[in-house]
Amino acid sequence: MSVDVDVAGPHGTDRSESERLRERIARVLERARERTAALTAAVPESDLVAQHSPLMSPLVWDLAHIGNQEELWLVRDAGGREPVRPDLDQLYDAFRHARADRPALPLLDPARAQAYVATVRRKTWDVLAEHPLRGTRLAEDGFVFGMVAQHEQQHDETMLATHQLRVGAPALSAPPAPAARVPVSGEIAIPAGEFTMGTSTDPWALDNERPAHRVHLPAFAIDAAPVTNAQYERFIADGGYQRTELWSARGWAHRTEAGLNAPQFWECHGNSWWRRAFGVLTPVDPQQPVLHVCWFEAQAYATWAGKRLPTEPEWEKAARFDPVTGGSRRYPWGESEPSAATANLGQRHLEPAGVGAYPAGATPTGIHQLIGDVWEWTASDFTPYPGFHAFPYREYSQVFFGGDYKVLRGGSFGTDEVACRATFRNWDHPIRRQIFAGFRLARDLSPHELERADS
Description:
Blueprint: H1 15-41, H2 45-49, H3 59-78, H4 110-130, H5 143-165, E1 187-190, E2 193-197, E3 213-217, E4 220-223, H6 229-237, H7 249-258, E5 266-269, E6 272-277, E7 280-283, H8 295-305, H9 312-320, E8 375-381, E9 406-409, E10 426-428, E11 437-438, E12 442-444, H10 447-454
Helix pairs in contact: 1-5, 3-4, 3-5, 7-8
């Protein structure tokens, strides 16, 4: 679909700058809507209204919720226009109704939900054509439009996870992810010192990524790649799910109660492991990063391997620190936006790529695939940065601080680039496995290694 947006800059703004920004906003909004449409058109109405897991909403709820958030922020707030459907506000308020309860609500049926989001989007194009994209913090650099695009893409990834939980004939297809292009193994030593964590300048960064602040870390080592399926299979074969000493008390209690014995969606046939992905059963690819493991599984594996999960500051320093300039990059490879050469993002594939598939996306120090493929669990709880201020509403981040949430970093194959930066923070309960999450390991350096790292 092509959108004709009037790019004339109102109120004396620079026309070329305004044009580029409006075109970018139009692109990210279109890309999100095309993905939403594909995810909902792929299945019959019966699957749209069904709840495929108590952890997830019906797909039709996500669809109308996307439209409602766009109406609230772009049509009403940014555009100052009359409400389209104010009667839907409470129905599609994510904090008012738990996911498990949403199927019982008087939801819009698929046809009405589609008509609603289409009406809202037509009004959004009118708002975009006239909006000054400046003047308030919400408007500056089109932040509110970027926020809405990120929100839709986050729900698209949630809907993709719902598709993975769905039972039935395959509904989605994509070309296979690339295999390794270069060998990647071992670990990278990161020297001690300060770095800038978070951002105060990225115009579309969300509140929990702000403000930028200096963090000092001792030297540490971090794996050059995420843990692969082959590595995780060795943990299983060595009795990793039966050895109490590898698990925390909470982790072992959850493992026992949930009956965990392998990553979610893995099946053992004979002497080999297979994985069911979006309705298709295939042999587990040994070179791909392991995914659909919870934080407790990642922690147990780390103990078995004699290492640990990286802290959130360690992960970000590994991903952003430029050893030449001492500055912090926007992405592991530099400042340029992600591309098909640097990261597996945007549902381009329906699986992680083989370790070593994106050498152009590696850090200068040689750490691979920090962006895309699988969300990576960290050791850290989800807490605010020093100087944090909720913006533009408390319910995006602030209400989750201090809860039972662990931070994930880096994005997955189901994350769109608009919602993925090296500063972007995701979080979830440590028992969650339906998300596209894996991990990599880190460790402290020995005194001898510290001497070498500091020299």
